[in-house]
Amino acid sequence: MTGIAIACGMVAGLGLILIIRGTSRPQLRLADAMAALDRRQPAQVETDTRPAGLEGLGHRLHRGIGLPLTQTQQRLLNLQGRTVGDFFVEKLVWTLAGLLLPTLWALTQLLFGRQPGLAPFGLALLGGLAGYFIADLRLRNGAEQHRRAAIDGIHTFFDLVVLERLANASAAQATANAASISDAPLFRRISSGLERARMEQSQPWDELRRIADEWNVAELSDFADVMQLEEQGAGLAEVLQARVRELRDAHLNRQREAAQEASESMSLWMTLPALLLGVALLTPALLTLLGTG
């Protein structure tokens, strides 16, 4: 009877998934088109494409069923060069793994003639819930490393712009040439923003400020301010070099502080073996004194 109940539950769950899949058709939203026109939330608009395969399935999970995606998660996905569909496919895989592993264990017990009871169902629910949030934890754990890589890349981008300016390139041309050097996610985003500004025949510096807010890279906003002043005829080539040097020095100081904090946190674990050795050496003498007393 337990096996029949499990099979019926799986069939009912599959039917529920098919019903949701059939009724949750993606709807066209006028807000997306208006956002594309006035360049609001460019990252979200760019990820609204519908790729095929597994990424398309993940995209339908997000837009069709309505699974949430926060602005912080969107920013982290941008930093890692991942799409929304890839993120929700990972969520689906971990959720199904958490659901199916206890179920497979229960089916194995049934094949051997044992009664698994109701414990596998509770474990399946807990496993599915935990699996849904594993992708969030993995995304957040890798955020700091990708952010450091993005900041290192943006400082390299500043150096490339300075070299282009020393080669008598205009401010906009130097920025576009430097952004086209690398295929990193941040460089691609800068290149697409500059190309959009060029097609619209507008200044690229507002677009760089939007990218700085979108990716949470304040250094890019400072760079846009200096480049805008220089393009207006202020002759700030030396100021640009000095500002780039200041930004790099500030970044190096933050890296040194982080390394110092990591070293200090490791010092406690380095002293524990010495403390245990001292206790081991003193224990026989203390026991002897207590015994003779």
Automatic annotation (TrEMBL):
It comes from Tessaracoccus flavescens. The chain crosses the membrane at residues 6-24, 92-112, 118-139, 268-290. The keyword Transmembrane helix applies. This is Type II secretion system protein GspF domain-containing protein. Signal peptide: none annotated. Keywords: Membrane, Transmembrane, Transmembrane helix.
